[in-house]
Amino acid sequence: MALSSNQPINLIPDFTYRDVPVASGAIHFYKNALVNRNSSGYAKLGADTAGEVFAGIAFEELDQATGGANGDNDIKLIAAKSGVVVKLTLTGVAITDIGADCFVNGDDVVALAATTTNDVRVGRIVDIGDTNEAYVVLD
Predict the structure, then answer these.
(1) pLDDT tens, position by position, 79-102
(2) Is 74 left (phi over 0), alpha (psi -120 to 50) or beta?
(3) Do 26 and 71 reside in the same domain of the chain?
(4) Which residues of the chain are under the pLDDT cut of 50?
(5) CB under 8 Å to 45, separation ≥6 — which residues?
(6) What's this model's pTM, rounded to 2 decimal places?
(7) Is 68:93 a contact under the CB 8 Å cutoff?
(8) Do 42 and 61 reside in the same domain of the chain?
(9) Domain span holding position 69
């Protein structure tokens, strides 16, 4: 239906950090780990896994060592699509890769599309750092 009057704009002033419910099982998230959402929407360690989407980067450590059911704990993340630029490990990154998309290749490393199977997208390379370091915008 078309608008017939002004409506309030519902802005989320800071979408940088999100608390995401954790998947069941014994999972240890270290700070700065890449985190995916499984097909049920729960957080798990980042991996190049079919049916998963990138959720963000762990802002804090969470040790769910004793296991637990889906949603028993939440992990605080720097959210995917937040526009934040982060430094990530990308083996063999070169200046010519600036502008390329990168994808989850484990909980501690990203890769270019040609080297991953399921292409769980993290963001776009905006600059390079030292050897094997890429600055990636989470977009």
Answers:
(1) 999 999 999 999 999 999 999 999
(2) beta
(3) yes
(4) none
(5) 27, 29, 33, 34, 35, 36, 107
(6) 0.89
(7) no
(8) yes
(9) 17-79
